[in-house]
Amino acid sequence: ERQRRCAQQTLQADQWFRLRASPPPARDAARAVAGRPDRRIHSADHEQTLPGRLVREEGQAAHGDAAVDEAYEWLGATYRFYWEVFGRDSIDDRGMPLIGTVHYGRDYDNAFWNGAQMVFGDGDGDLFRRFTAAPEVVAHELTHGVIERDVGLVYAGQSGALNESLADVFGVVVKQYHAGQTAQEADWLIGAALLTDRVQGRALRSMEAPGTAYDDPVLGRDPQPGHMRDFVDTQADNGGVHINSGIPNRAFYLAAVALEAPAWESVAPVWYAAMRDDALSRESDFAAFAALTVAHARRQHGEGSREARAVDDAWREVGVVS
Ligand code: ASN
Ligand code: ZN
């Protein structure tokens, strides 16, 4: 069961709301400098109390605990991406501290954003390693905070799958930006680094080929569709938020690889502008988002640009636009 939580990849809604913390901390005016992250890494010491014991603050040397230092590094890489690419100063664009807790619980096979901070389990060691091992997973969780601030996409059904997809999109682009990888060089996998050798699979999700990330005796088969004709109607996973996210994920992949420039220069700014557009509501579906990306691709690159065509073609190819 505990492995399934991550493969189905969610906390049930009731757990989710119980875990939600009080309002996020305000910017610490004495410490926040635009363009510089303000990281605070805590350890839950295998309990489930948040945020736990403070173990590494901004500017302090490496701690020596791999989970602590990975959380610090990948939160920093994510901050740098949002700042350098979009001029965004942290989750709230006002220098909000980046609070991460590692060693959450025992054998905990997940990571999450709780409304105020990011939380990372160590994994059970059998199928999953620590969740800080993958930069795109750390960036995925931080991006849930960004999405909550900018649109508040309701975490159920299509708006929830869109929420999940945006977390994967910016998560994977953070990894590509950090590694200096073009869209063609990238693996487009989410969470490859946190699977053990025992898992029959490559990652938690593949944006290039949803549904093919794993096929394992314990985890089962990757349930993600890559086209609207295979959209999964389910009560599980808040209406399949981690399942149907495969469809918009693949659209982003297709648009990115159709273009020469790296994803952070080509389509990530288009997706970012669409996410922040006032026309996107908390309950928007895939089609509404797709229309906004096409509009922003035209606005950013020109009416008949290759970029606008690539974005439009990508949504057609996954069956969201017909
Ligand atoms: N790892 C999951 C995620 O961030 C946790 C959850 O289901 N909310 O999507
Ligand atoms: Zn998520």
Automatic annotation (TrEMBL):
InterPro entries assigned to the protein according to its UniProt record, in alphabetical order: Metalloprotease_M4, Peptidase_M4, Peptidase_M4/M1_CTD_sf, Peptidase_M4_C_domain, Peptidase_M4_domain, Protealysin_N_PP
Report the cofactors. Zn(2+)
Peptidase M4 C-terminal domain location is 152-320
* Location of the region described as Disordered in the Swiss-Prot/TrEMBL record: 23-52
A GO term, aspect molecular function: metalloendopeptidase activity
Q: Compositional bias of type Basic and acidic residues: which residue ranges?
A: 36-52
Q: Does the keyword NAD apply?
A: no
Where in the numbering of this chain does the Peptidase M4 domain appear?
A: 47-148
Give the source's domain of life in one word. Bacteria
> Where does it sit, as one GO cellular component term?
extracellular region
Q: Where is the active site?
A: 141, 242 (proton donor)
Query: Where, per UniProt, does this protein localize?
Result: Secreted
Q: Which UniProt keywords apply?
A: Hydrolase, Metal-binding, Metalloprotease, Protease, Secreted, Zinc
Instruction: Kindly state a single biological-process term from the GO annotations of this entry.
Output: proteolysis
Give the EC number. Answer: 3.4.24.-
- Report the top EC class in one word: hydrolase
Describe the task this protein carries out: Extracellular zinc metalloprotease.
The family note in this entry says:
Belongs to the peptidase M4 family.
**What's the protein here called?**
Neutral metalloproteinase
Tell me what organism the protein belongs to. Answer: Chromohalobacter israelensis (strain ATCC BAA-138 / DSM 3043 / CIP 106854 / NCIMB 13768 / 1H11)
| Taxonomic path | Bacteria, Pseudomonadati, Pseudomonadota, Gammaproteobacteria, Oceanospirillales
